[in-house]
Give the backbone structure.
Amino acid sequence: MALLIPMILSLSVHEFAHAWSASRLGDDTAERMGRLTLNPVPHIDPFGTILLPLVAMMSPGVPFFGWAKPVPVDPSRFRRGVNMAAGMALTALAGPLSNLLLAIVCVVLYGLGARYHLLEAQPAVVFLLDRMISLNIVLAIFNLIPIPPLDGSRVIDWLVPYRHRAAWETITRFAPFLLIAVFIFAPYVLAGPVSAMNSLLDRLLLAVAGRA
């Protein structure tokens, strides 16, 4: 349960960011469906947010993972002047960026707590901040992988040149198999980027804590 709370909070922020960015671009679909909120309840997917993480926690060797209900986005409702592909890319990017921002906020709070000795008798808070940082780094990087339906695929869909469009569409047809491969090899795929991001945030933590 201690791991489930950070997961639910992080996924809720991720989906809220999608809804917020779409709303800013003129699409109020998610807002009308009650998804423009930080309240976790509307974002919870019973299987992906609750059951799967619980099974993972009780099964040694099974990666801890989950997802929330995808936020609906209707690019045809973007305001005039917003390119649909660009709008979808920006809306998609908002999710991983929100997780990165949440990780940074938690690092700053952790650093301030360490600097002013506020966490010495608060092991539960330390655990929560530590898990929030590590989980949000993984969520941000994982979702930037350019394979549908991950957020990174929306960015590629926007940026890919017309001459490479056919090749990109061929790749997307194999997305389910590629996604399975990513899950299987996730520790190897994510290890480098996660390590690099952890290193950067460790420097920030030391600086905020006054130990740089």
User: Anything to note?
Assistant: The CA atoms of residues 109 and 129 lie 8 Å apart. Residues 84-115 form the longest helix (32 residues).
